[in-house]
C-alpha cells in the first residue's frame, strides 16, 4: 500500500495507523512517499499507486502558504491524475458522543464528482485581474458516478439513490446529470432513484433524517452537504475517512483536510480519521476481519469515553488514546500481533 503521511500532524498519525493496523493483524506492507516535496517525488508517487493499486494519504499540500497558492492543489490534482472519479463519504452517527448529536442514528452516504465541476482544476487569467474557473461536466463521468452509486447500493443493502442538482441555475450541465442518472436508474428497478434540487432536498432532510440513503451530487454541493451532515451527527471530519475511487485505483484519506501545523508533535491530535483511512483500505483490499476488529474497538473506546481527545471535550493525549485502543484490540480476539 502506498502511504503519503503528508505535512503537519500527518507523519505522527501515519505511525499511529501503522501500529493499530499491525495490532489488528493487517497483512499489509507499506511504501511511504512524500509527494508534497517536489514534482519528481509526486510523479514517483503516481507510479507507486499504479503498482500497488491502493493508497492512504494525509494532507499533501506544501507547508509554505506561498507554494500552496502558486500551484494546483496536490490533494485534488492527484485524484484527477489517477482518474478517481468519485468521492465516497459515509456520514454516520458515531457512538459515545450523544451529547453532541443533533440527529441520532443518521446514516447517509454522499458521493460527489471528484474530477469534474470546479474540481476539473481549469483556472486561468485571460487578461490581467480577470480570472476564469471553467467547470466541466461530462455525460461519461456522470454516468460512471451513478453506476458506482447504484452498485454500491446493491452491495451494501441500501434501497435508494438520490441525485441532488441545481437545475434552475445551471440548466445545461444539471440536465445532463439528470439524463445520465435516469439512464442508469432504469437499469436498477430494485433500487429507488430520485432527483431533487439541492434546496428541496435539504428541506426534505431537515423534516426527515431518513429522506436520503445514498446521495449523488457535484463537487461543490457535495462538500457543503458533508459539512452539514457532520454538524447534524455531532462530530466533525476528524472521526471520518473517505474513499476516492476509480476503475483501477483507490486512495483513502481522513475527511478532515487540516494540516495541523500548529499542533504537530504535541501529542494532542485525534487519530481516528487516519485510522479509519486504514480501515477503509483494508476493506477495499478484502481484509474484512482486521477492519472489523478496529471498528469494534473504536466503538468501544468512544462508548467508554475515558480517553477522548481534546477536540471531543476529553483530556487524553494521542498516545493515551492509542494505548486504550490497542488494549481493546487485544481483548477482542486475543490478538497476538500487538
Automatic annotation (TrEMBL):
BP terms from Gene Ontology: isocitrate metabolic process; tricarboxylic acid cycle
UniProt key word Nuclease: no
Keywords annotated in UniProt: Tricarboxylic acid cycle
Residue intervals of the Isopropylmalate dehydrogenase-like domain: 1-325
GO cellular component: mitochondrion
InterPro entries: IsoPropMal-DH-like_dom
Coiled-coil ranges (or none): none
Family: Belongs to the isocitrate and isopropylmalate dehydrogenases family.
PANTHER family: DECARBOXYLATING DEHYDROGENASES-ISOCITRATE, ISOPROPYLMALATE, TARTRATE, ISOCITRATE DEHYDROGENASE [NAD] SUBUNIT, MITOCHONDRIAL
Protein name: Iso_dh domain-containing protein
Organism: Rhodnius prolixus (Triatomid bug)
Amino acid at each position: 500500500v502506498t502511504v503519503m503521511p503528508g505535512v503537519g500532524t500527518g507523519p505522527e498519525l501515519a505511525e499511529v495507523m501503522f501500529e493499530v493496523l499491525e495490532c489488528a493483524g493487517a497483512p499489509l506492507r507499506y511504501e511511504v512517499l512524500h509527494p508534497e516535496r517536489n514534482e519528481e517525488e509526486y510523479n514517483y508517487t503516481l507510479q507507486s499507486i499504479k503498482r500497488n493499486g491502493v493508497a492512504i494519504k494525509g494532507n499533501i499540500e506544501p507547508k509554505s502558504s506561498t507554494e500552496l497558492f502558486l500551484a494546483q492543489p496536490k490533494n485534488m490534482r492527484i485524484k484527477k491524475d489517477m482518474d478517481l472519479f468519485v468521492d465516497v463519504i459515509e456520514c454516520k452517527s458515531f457512538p459515545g458522543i450523544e451529547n453532541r448529536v443533533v440527529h441520532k442514528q443518521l446514516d447517509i452516504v454522499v458521493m460527489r464528482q471528484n474530477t469534474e465541476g470546479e474540481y476539473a482544476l481549469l483556472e486561468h487569467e485571460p487578461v490581467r485581474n480577470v480570472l476564469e474557473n471553467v467547470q466541466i461536466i461530462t455525460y461519461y463521468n456522470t454516468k460512471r458516478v451513478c453506476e458506482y452509486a447504484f452498485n454500491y447500493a446493491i452491495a451494501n443493502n441500501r434501497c435508494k439513490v438520490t441525485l441532488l442538482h441545481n437545475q434552475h441555475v445551471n440548466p445545461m450541465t444539471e440536465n445532463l446529470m439528470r439524463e445520465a442518472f435516469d439512464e442508469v436508474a432504469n437499469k436498477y428497478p430494485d433500487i429507488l432513484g430520485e432527483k431533487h434540487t439541492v434546496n428541496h432536498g435539504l428541506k426534505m432532510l431537515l423534516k426527515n433524517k431518513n429522506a436520503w440513503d445514498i446521495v449523488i451530487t457535484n463537487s461543490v454541493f457535495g462538500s457543503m452537504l458533508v459539512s452539514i451532515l457532520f454538524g447534524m451527527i455531532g462530530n466533525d471530519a476528524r472521526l471520518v475517512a473517505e474513499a476516492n475511487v476509480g476503475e483501477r485505483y483507490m486512495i483513502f484519506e481522513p475527511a478532515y483536510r487540516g494540516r495541523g501545523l500548529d499542533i504537530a508533535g504535541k501529542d494532542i491530535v485525534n487519530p481516528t480519521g487516519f485510522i479509519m483511512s486504514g480501515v477503509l483500505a483494508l476493506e477495499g483490499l478484502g481484509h474484512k476481519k482486521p477492519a472489523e476488529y478496529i471498528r469494534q474497538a473504536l466503538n468501544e473506546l468512544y462508548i467508554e469515553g475515558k480517553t477522548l481527545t481534546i477536540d471531543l471535550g476529553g483530556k487524553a493525549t494521542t498516545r493515551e488514546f492509542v494505548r486504550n485502543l490497542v488494549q481493546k484490540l487485544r481483548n477482542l480476539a486475543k490478538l497476538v500481533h500487538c
